[in-house]
Amino acid sequence: MARFLCPACGAEVPFRTADGVTTTCGSCGNLLIRKDLTLESLGKVATLADDLTPLQIGAVGKYRGSGFTVVGRSRVDWAEGTWNEWFVAFDSGETGWLAESQGNWAMLKEVPSSSAPKLDPKALRPGTSIAIGKYTFEVEDAREAWVAGIQGELPKVVRPGKKYFSVDLTVPAGEGGVATASIGFPDTGPEVYVGEWVDFPEFHFAGLRVLDGW
Amino acid sequence: MQKFYLYFGTLLIFLAAVASSRGYSLWSSVTTGRFSPTGPRAYHK
Amino acid sequence: MAGDLPPESGAPPASAPPPASKPSVRVFQCPGCGATLNIKAVGQTITVGCGSCGATLDTSREDVQLVEKGQVLKRRIDLPIGTRGQFEGSVFEILGVMGRHDEASGYAWKEYLLFNPYQGFRWLSEAGGQWSYVSPLKGVPKVDDSISFKTGMKPRAELGGRTFVHFQNSVGIVDFVIGEFYWRVRKGDKSKLADYVDPPDLLSCETNESERIWTRCTYLTPEAVGAAFRLPNPLPYAIGVAPNQPNPYLERWRGLRDTWFLFTIAILVLFVLHKIRSPHQELFEESLHYEPTATAAEKVVRLGPYEITGNGNFELDLHADLNNSYFDADVDLVNDSTGEAHDMQVGAEYWSGYDSDGSWSEGSTSGDDLETGIGPGTYHLVITPSAANGANTPTPVSYRLKGVRGVSVGSNFFLAWLILSVYPLFTFFRSSAFESERWSNSDYAPSDSGDGDDWSSDD
């Protein structure tokens, strides 16, 4: 855990993960970027609109026996919908992403983009097969997306509104269970994430938002 | 329903086996109209 | 636990329990008619169908946009928006209703969107009173498209060790939307649908330009849906057979078939044993002649004595040289030891001729009689024959009479087997009829009408 002071308001700002690059100050709402031993303010970020997600930063859960804490959130929009990507810090120091899409939950970890062969966004359409590591995935969705809002600690600088190509893939059930993958094509180069679908109760979350009426 | 069929069938087969072992033929009885042995009766001729 | 961690940026203070979140219902006015509408699945809902004016609204941004005006038609909505029901151990709320129809056949169905913040979205699909509980499929089934009309092999999808057989392809067109939806949808939207069945489940693959979604649809009776929502009134009856409706006769048929098979084996074994144990002892075979001109005393034939050693039956077999005549004989089987007699009767009639249609014949030249309860003893037979022609004039007849004791009686077993075959056969036909009706609505219906029943939209 690294602790810094917010350059805008002086409040204490922690960084929970070694991968964390940006975070929002809990007191003044400024977006802060970590540069070596200091923080730089990038200005205020609009607070993410309240929605009906049960998850919140600070919640803790378990995945395959390892405990993790939710430290950041990125809300991603596309032409026909929206989903949440939660940045999580495992007790072991590893980090991962919890994708929440229409009530479906998947835990993904980044893998080197070299584990997927030549990735051409134009060739990835629903039904296309590509191999990542030892699995053969099929494209389920391929569309343009952009980050609509951020919250908490994230491992990269995100520019809200900047469009990038996003591809979701699944493995035919029976070959590797319910593995799923996601590939993003931002300007900085393809980012490949591999993981699996998990039913919400299997995370054994604690510290969830209490939703009135539910 | 299945149990009923099983019990009924077992009973029916048992009855068929007993009838045959006694030499009795249901089919023959139906065609001749005689369901029980006509004898024995005292013979006077 | 949240209480053990130091405060994270953006997290509530660790010391106090997280305050209950107000449901953040988003309230706004319909740009089409001004009616007050609200959104419960805040952050997810981007399309709203106004229940008052039928307009389709885009709610993805701060300002609500009118996409399309609409009209409100009288529709049967079995599950009103806001109704809550219990599924998979969680409470779900109806957020929206969408009506679609198949482009080719006009067959219409409704899809009710269910929502729970922890479980996500589900659907209830309804057509003709038949319901399915629809959930998103994690993972993609393995699809084998090979098709053979010779072997009747249809395309199939494999998932979790189960094989789902292709039922139909269709194009779904949206007719109306009322309530909240988490994707952009409007009247007229088309998508390709491919259904694969393995009752009570159905796998559906829905494809449009940007995505492909697989769902699993599990059959529900109207009673089950009514119970899940605790509806005061029962839902409409289910009509016909749904693609994923379980066959109530199949289990029964399978059980009966196995029992019937066991019965058949048992009957065969017992019959063979019976046949082996039957003495089938021929006591006599005599060639005799009936002469009508003889005296009454001369006409009576006496046969015997014969020794019968066991208990059982006694069979008389008659073969007569008949030519448009009949023959009858009263036979007394007398036990000399006990003085008791059994009455038997054996006869035959045979008629033949030639007419405009050709030669004809009627009757038989042989006959038999069986008597049971014959005990051991010395027996003789007293035979009183008679014979006449078609004019009832007595005629002479030569005949052969055979007497066998302890004949096997296979007919009892055969009759039992016939009786026991009725119920399984009946169940098999019911099960087959059910499957025929199921498949009459598929792409593989044998009739040339193609899609079987034409389910018209109930709008």
The helical percent of chain C reads 10-25%
Query: Strand share of the residues of chain A?
Result: over 45%
Order of strands, main sheet of chain C, comes to: 8-9-10-11-17-16-15-14
Largest sheet data of chain A: 8 strands, antiparallel, barrel
Given as residue ranges, the uncertain stretches of chain C (5+ residues, pLDDT < 50) are 1-17, 449-459
Describe the structure.
- The complex is a heterotrimer of chains A (214), B (45) and C (459).
- By secondary structure, chain A is mainly beta.
- Chain A folds into two domains: 2-44, Rubrerythrin, domain 2 (Single Sheet); 72-203, no CATH class.
- Chain A has strands spanning 2-5, 12-15, 22-24, 30-35, 38-44, 60-63, 66-78, 81-90, 95-101, 104-111, 129-132, 135-152, 163-170, 179-185, 191-198, 210-211.
- Chain A has an eight-stranded antiparallel beta barrel. Chain A has a three-stranded antiparallel beta sheet with strand order 3-4-5, with no helix packed on it. A two-stranded antiparallel sheet of chain A has the order 1-2.
- The model of chain A has no long low-confidence stretch (mean pLDDT 84).
- By secondary structure, chain B is mainly α.
- Helices cover 60% and strands 4% of the residues of chain B.
- Chain B has helices at 2-21, 26-32, and one strand at residues 41-42.
- Chain B is elongated.
- The model of chain B has no long low-confidence stretch (mean pLDDT 84).
- Chain C has 459 residues and is of the alpha+beta class.
- Chain C has three domains: 32-243, no CATH class; 250-275 and 412-439, no CATH class; 279-407, Jelly Rolls, CATH 2.60.120.
- Helices cover 15% and strands 45% of the residues of chain C.
- Chain C is built from four helices and 26 strands.
- Chain C has helices at 222-229, 248-277, 296-299, 411-439, and strands spanning 20-21, 26-29, 36-39, 47-49, 56-58, 65-68, 84-87, 90-102, 108-116, 120-127, 130-136, 142-144, 156-159, 162-181, 190-198, 201-207, 212-220, 281-290, 301-308, 312-320, 325-335, 340-355, 358-364, 366-374, 377-389, 397-405.
- Chain C has an eight-stranded antiparallel barrel.
- The radius of gyration of chain C is 41 Å and the shape is rod-shaped.
- Chains A and C meet through strand 7, strand 12 and strand 16 of A and strand 1 of C.
